[in-house]
Amino acid sequence: xxxxxxxxxxxxxxxxxxxxxxxxxxxxxxxxxxxxxxxxxxxxxxxxxxxxxxxxxxxxxxxxxxxxxxxxxxxxxxxxxxxxxxxxxxxxxxxxxxxxxxxxxxxxxxxxxxxxxxxxxxxxxxxxxxxxxxxxxxxxxxxxxxxxxxxxxxxxxxxxxxxxxxxxxxxxxxxxxxxxxxxxxxxxxxxxxxxxxxxxxxxxxxxxxxxxxxxxxxxxxxxxxxxxxxxxxxxxxxxxxxxxxxx
Amino acid sequence: xxxxxxxxxxxxxxxxxxxxxxxxxxxxxxxxxxxxxxxxxxxxxxxxxxxxxxxxxxxxxxxxxxxxxxxxxxxxxxxxxxxxxxxxxxxxxxxxxxxxxxxxxxxxxxxxxxxxxxxxxxxxxxxxxxxxxxxxxxxxxxxxxxxxxxxxxxxxxxxxxxxxxxxxxxxxxxxxxxxxxxxxxxxxxxxxxxxxxxxxxxxxxxxxxxxxxxxxxxxxxxxxxxxxxxxxxxxxxxxxxxxxxxx
DNA sequence: GCATATTTGTCCGTATGTATA
DNA sequence: CTATACATACGGACAAATATG
Lengths: 247, 247
Fold this sequence. Notes:
By secondary structure, chain A is mostly helical. Chain A is about 70% helix and about 5% strand.
């Protein structure tokens, strides 16, 4: 269970021991990134250089380098002379992200023009797709709705992978990470994820049959519904928090 | 005479605020970025922290922040304990970049489904497109081939802008900046840019007529030719430099 | 392969500027 | 308006890694 406690910085101390191999700044960024996309810190929270540097036992210089990395990934926003804050996505951001998702994922599916054969790298990608569908269904059977969410991320990363572009892959990962800043408003995860299990299955089947064009149309429909549902929930949550603030 | 109002200083400071204040690290990054995309430093060159910090009169810490920013933009690569180097794009990188360009730019053009009217933001974007075409032609008439190249960049940024997405806009700018690390191998700029002036004109006309689909097809053709031409010249240049090294 | 010089990685102390109670 | 807290930027220091002869 997520617990965005006010002094969550102390939680970071426990994660510190996993600091191991690469550059310190990158490792710090990895740790912070995990905390951010798991929703352990609420949007708009200011991240104090001092508190975190002490908690992670790194210098402020190193921590600032990590902050730069995460700002570039749009998980943090840097305000000059005010510090860094956990990104709070606007509704416009969500719309923009889905606009880009539609472009990328549909284009990736349209790259599929022939049925997948037993060997070849294309077939391994369609296998990834199928595997994400299966894992998602199994998680749903267990009632593990966060697990369904994770499987769904894998599914969409696998869709993007069909474009055969490392830049598209990385971009997709970034977009999904950004979206996770929003997903936490979907409290009843079941209602959010369950309807899409069947969609994913159908899209995977179309890909296996080499029907990239039709798969793209199905995904377009999927993404439009998901976007609408997310926006409704998100703007409702925003209105409620405004009420809380105004008291 | 400019209005000598006693408050003019206030106007200046407010204008400065709208431009967005920047930190030293970002200003340093701006300077370095310009040098990089203008090809003033050869790929694979190591950038010495000490030398540049002294030259720009900033501390090493600040410079390192700028390095991080540019590494994230893929203009520099960071090698642990070895420093940062000017990015050297591989042929695979060029292919990957064009793959993403095709996805983004064609998708943007397909957003155009109706003729542009006199007002509305869509028409301003198609005006940007037309303006880039005109500027390019004028530069060609002057024999200013670098100018043609710049106008061409504007053209493609304007194409991407039709997608109405800030993320697509930023992405496109980054991709074009990356590509500029390669363009310098095209010594006879004239042969590279001249054939595409007519293509740009035709695409702009199709956009103005609301024929997004057909404009997309024309651009697809354009991008495939440009990619091929660039790859041939680039791999040839790479082979030559290998020969130079092996002696 | 070794010893040396150079360069990066990281940290600290501090002075200055900026935002906010 | 003042005080306080904090971010920004600098310069120096030293260990660790790397390049060089």
